What we know:
Elements: E1 10-14, H1 18-24, E2 30-34, H2 37-42, H3 48-58, E3 64-67, H4 73-84, E4 90-95, H5 105-113, E5 118-123, H6 126-135, E6 142-146, H7 148-153, H8 159-169, E7 175-179, H9 186-194, E8 198-201, H10 203-206, H11 216-234
Parallel strand pairs: 1-2, 1-8, 2-3, 3-4, 4-5, 5-6, 6-7, 7-8
Helix pairs in contact: 1-3, 5-6, 6-8, 8-9
Amino acid sequence: MRGLESLRVKVFADGANPRHMCELNDLPYVQGFTTNPTLMRRAGVTSYRAFAREVLAAITAKPVSFEVLADDFETMERQALEIAGWADNVYVKIPVTNTRGEPAVSLVRRLARRGVKVNVTAVMTLAQAAEVAAALEPGTPGCVSIFAGRIADTGVDPVPLMSQAAQLLQGRAGTELMWASPRELLNVLQADAAGCHIITLTSDLLGKLALLGRDLGQFSLETVKMFYADAQAAGFSV
């Protein structure tokens, strides 16, 4: 089986705990970071700017994505320009639509033309990916973030869509395809095979990376030993 060192896809850590993010920054295989308002709320973040300052003081050489908070495009644009100014390694996450389903393509185009590194998030269809790719400025770094895990949650295999999206982005300098919201470690291998540039991993999946390439016979034995040890520790009997 393949190990992490053989993969082309880049691993980005997805979370909003500043201390944990700083620890992960020391790991060479973690090549970037993503956050979002939901993760920030769960982590107990109370000040967006203070959170960003703490993160960016420690993470200076790897990309970090911060999301706009507004729902109207005028305010999104103002927030995006401020966020982009926080540091050179910042990507600004723009939702593919607002809550009314209105596409954010025009805003993405304006920001990209101003040199803002945009990460377009919550993309779930190939049509959305195509519109976003066309709006990003060739040569200006940008990401098309497809929520493959949420697609899989609906019973649809996301791999064909991700492969088609990867082909769609071929030859577009600076534009990267991100496999977002993975559900299992297998998704890392699927993202790599599909031609994705990046996959985001939460802490629980990052903790499983050491399992890549594990001998299954040995893994089976370790599992048996775990069950036996837990039964003994619990004092179970029949």
